[in-house]
């Protein structure tokens, strides 16, 4: 086998998996043009067309489907063989790709990542922040970080970062001008800074006190897709916003924001690290799982 055959076959399998040259390039850390060249070279060598291509879609031809069926088990075996070589190393190695929402990247990574990298100097960590709910396997990630309720049932979940708690906040100036809501329903009389998920759905503000649970579709003239921008708007006096307590602890202590309705914001389970139950766990991912569990026990 020519030296470049394996890389071209890996590019083919990735394009087939993602139905996208761009996403295959992201998974393999190659440019789209490099992926296109690999597929074109493979097709020329085999003398068959492997993909139907249009400006909007990529799909396998019959020949491409047959090649993929024969190729995937072989590539899996190659990956297993290479991963077994890490057992002969003194420390785990490799690249670990983890998908997470922006808020998890903001709250968890600054404290955890330096300690993890110091413990495992041969591991490369790639964190991709994305607030959308994605298929981590199809997107080429080893693992993901989400709130537990957003994790698919066929995944293994490991708690990380401890409990979280909501925080309804506004600037001191805004509160001085517009007053303090004494009950969550009072928020309907105030300007609220809302959050929209990548799916297009608006977040309904959640409050809880004992057996009482509320989901409010609050009103407001400003909506963001990034909680950090919502915080900036709150500090600018635009209105109330609902974020995580850990995001505002220092801002509240500094007097830039004021918390309200604290008795309606109880703690709840926080983030989890999750990964596929039926997929090979690389040495880099295994090391990160053990690290997260050690952090939980500390």
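^ Assign residues to that structure.
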């Amino acid at each position: 086998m020519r030296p470049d055959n394996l890389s071209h076959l890996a590019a083919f399998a990735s394009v087939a998996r993602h139905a996208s040259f761009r996403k295959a390039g992201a998974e393999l850390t190659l440019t789209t043009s490099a992926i296109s060249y690999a597929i074109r070279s493979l097709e020329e060598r085999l003398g068959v067309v492997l993909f139907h291509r249009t400006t909007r879609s990529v799909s396998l031809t019959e020949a491409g489907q047959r090649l993929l069926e024969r190729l995937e088990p072989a590539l899996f075996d190659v990956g297993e063989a290479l991963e077994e070589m890490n057992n002969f190393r003194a420390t785990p190695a490799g690249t670990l790709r983890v998908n997470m929402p922006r808020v998890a990247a903001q709250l968890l990574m600054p404290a955890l990542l330096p300690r993890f990298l110091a413990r495992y100097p041969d591991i490369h960590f790639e964190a991709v922040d994305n607030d959308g709910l994605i298929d981590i396997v199809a997107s080429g990630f080893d693992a993901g970080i989400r709130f537990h309720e957003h994790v698919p049932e066929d995944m293994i979940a490991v708690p990380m970062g401890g409990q979280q708690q909501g925080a309804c906040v506004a600037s001191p100036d805004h509160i001085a001008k517009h007053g303090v809501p004494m009950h969550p329903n009072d928020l309907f009389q105030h300007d609220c800074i809302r959050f929209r998920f990548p799916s297009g759905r608006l977040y309904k503000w959640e409050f809880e006190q004992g057996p009482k649970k509320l989901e409010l579709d609050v009103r407001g003239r400003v909506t963001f897709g990034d909680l950090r921008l919502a915080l900036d708007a709150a500090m600018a006096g635009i209105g109330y916003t609902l974020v995580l307590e850990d995001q505002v602890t220092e801002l509240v202590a500094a007097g830039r924001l004021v918390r309200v309705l604290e008795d309606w914001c109880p703690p709840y389970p926080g983030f989890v690290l999750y990964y596929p139950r039926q997929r090979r766990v690389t040495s880099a991912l295994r090391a990160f799982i053990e690290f997260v569990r050690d952090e939980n026990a500390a």
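The longest strand covers residues 94-100.
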